[in-house]
């Protein structure tokens, strides 16, 4: 039985002269979502939500480390002590602070990223489904990263501010019982008080500068490691192999691009009072951080970041592949 367009070819009783039969609404819907770009969009959204929720406490701790400038000591401690402090101060809600917004951001971010990659790679394929070279994956991944971050950047700023507004920074103490603003409240406040629409994209330049190589490296290294972890004679690696490939790709990509992530966080809260800094540009930020905090200042938060990146990227890639294969019924050629 062959499917073509909006019909399915059903052979006659004698097995000849197939007659077209219109597809049902359900069959047409399944045919639509089984397309590689659509399936990647849906699977990417699932992968993003799973990966971020798994590592939410470490993600928030990384942000608290990143935004703490010289002279601040509230979170100048080891990772396990900082996590314990977060638990004492805020409990389980502290571990998950900003995660709801992060998932709202990461679902479309990850969905757009994976689907955009499938769109861009078509320009480099010799034929549909043919594998790309390492540098082609790097380039297509970089373009996909820029596309996704441009669409979802305002939610990233909100997530950062939600992550730090309840933290026990001395200068951010509020009156007892004062209600903290939510996602929509922060968006409105930034728009009204910090420069309108442009305020929602503060820090986008260092973000794009870091995201393009990060996503490109992630796609490139994952495919290399995926091949490495595939047993001889097999087409795909096992679930453990996919987890390992995702962990390695995430660690390599994050380590290479981490200073851009620190700059992104600093610029996202650059206009918040009480944080101890207000940079005029990227070079001013870099020079001030290095001068007051040393080179290590550009790598603040990298320890919890590396601790989170392995389970985050491993679960992301595994969730993506499992969901995409389920949606497409494993009817696909090539990897991505």
Automatic annotation (TrEMBL):
<keyword id="KW-0106">Calcium</keyword>
<dbReference type="GO" id="GO:0005743">
    <property type="term" value="C:mitochondrial inner membrane"/>
</dbReference>
<keyword id="KW-0813">Transport</keyword>
<feature type="region of interest" description="Disordered">
    <location>
        <begin position="1"/>
        <end position="21"/>
    </location>
</feature>
<protein>
    <recommendedName>
        <fullName>Mitochondrial thiamine pyrophosphate carrier 1</fullName>
    </recommendedName>
</protein>
<dbReference type="InterPro" id="IPR023395">
    <property type="entry name" value="MCP_dom_sf"/>
</dbReference>
<dbReference type="GO" id="GO:0046872">
    <property type="term" value="F:metal ion binding"/>
</dbReference>
<keyword id="KW-0472">Membrane</keyword>
<keyword id="KW-0479">Metal-binding</keyword>
<dbReference type="Pfam" id="PF00153">
    <property type="entry name" value="Mito_carr"/>
</dbReference>
<keyword id="KW-0999">Mitochondrion inner membrane</keyword>
<dbReference type="InterPro" id="IPR002067">
    <property type="entry name" value="MCP"/>
</dbReference>
<dbReference type="GO" id="GO:0055085">
    <property type="term" value="P:transmembrane transport"/>
</dbReference>
<keyword id="KW-1133">Transmembrane helix</keyword>
<keyword id="KW-0812">Transmembrane</keyword>
<feature type="repeat" description="Solcar">
    <location>
        <begin position="35"/>
        <end position="123"/>
    </location>
</feature>
<keyword id="KW-0677">Repeat</keyword>
<feature type="repeat" description="Solcar">
    <location>
        <begin position="237"/>
        <end position="326"/>
    </location>
</feature>
<comment type="function">
    <text>Mitochondrial transporter that mediates uptake of thiamine pyrophosphate (ThPP) into mitochondria.</text>
</comment>
<dbReference type="InterPro" id="IPR018108">
    <property type="entry name" value="MCP_transmembrane"/>
</dbReference>
<comment type="similarity">
    <text>Belongs to the mitochondrial carrier (TC 2.A.29) family.</text>
</comment>
<keyword id="KW-0496">Mitochondrion</keyword>
<feature type="repeat" description="Solcar">
    <location>
        <begin position="132"/>
        <end position="228"/>
    </location>
</feature>
């Amino acid at each position: 039985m062959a499917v073509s367009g909006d019909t399915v070819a059903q052979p006659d009783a004698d097995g000849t002269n197939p007659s077209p039969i219109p597809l049902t609404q359900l069959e047409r819907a399944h045919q639509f979502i089984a397309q590689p770009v659509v399936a990647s969009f849906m699977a990417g959204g699932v992968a993003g939500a799973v990966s971020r929720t798994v590592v939410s406490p470490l993600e928030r701790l990384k942000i608290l480390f990143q935004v703490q400038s010289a002279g601040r000591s509230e979170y100048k401690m080891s990772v396990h002590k900082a996590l314990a402090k977060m638990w004492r101060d805020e409990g389980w809600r502290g571990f998950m602070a900003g995660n709801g917004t992060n998932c709202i951001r990461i679902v479309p971010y990850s969905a757009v990223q994976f689907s955009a990659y499938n769109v861009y790679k078509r320009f480099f394929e010799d034929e549909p489904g043919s594998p790309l070279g390492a540098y082609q994956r790097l380039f297509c991944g970089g373009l996909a990263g820029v596309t996704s971050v441009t669409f979802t950047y305002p939610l990233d700023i909100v997530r950062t501010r939600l992550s730090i507004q309840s933290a026990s920074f001395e200068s951010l103490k509020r009156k007892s019982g004062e209600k903290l603003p939510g996602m929509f409240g922060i968006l409105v406040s930034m728009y009204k008080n910090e420069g309108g629409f442009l305020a929602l994209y503060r820090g986008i330049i260092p973000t794009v500068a870091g995201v393009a190589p990060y996503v490109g490296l992630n796609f490139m290294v994952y495919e290399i490691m995926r091949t490495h972890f595939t047993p001889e004679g097999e087409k795909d690696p096992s679930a453990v192999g996919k987890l390992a490939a995702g962990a390695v790709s995430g660690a390599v990509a994050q380590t290479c691009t981490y200073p851009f992530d620190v700059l992104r966080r600093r610029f996202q809260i650059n206009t918040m009072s009480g944080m101890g800094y207000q940079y005029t540009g990227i070079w001013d930020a870099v020079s001030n951080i290095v001068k007051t905090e040393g080179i290590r200042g550009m790598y603040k938060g990298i320890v919890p970041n590396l601790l989170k990146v392995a389970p985050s990227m491993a679960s992301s890639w595994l969730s993506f592949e499992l969901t995409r294969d389920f949606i497409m019924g494993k009817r696909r050629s090539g990897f991505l």
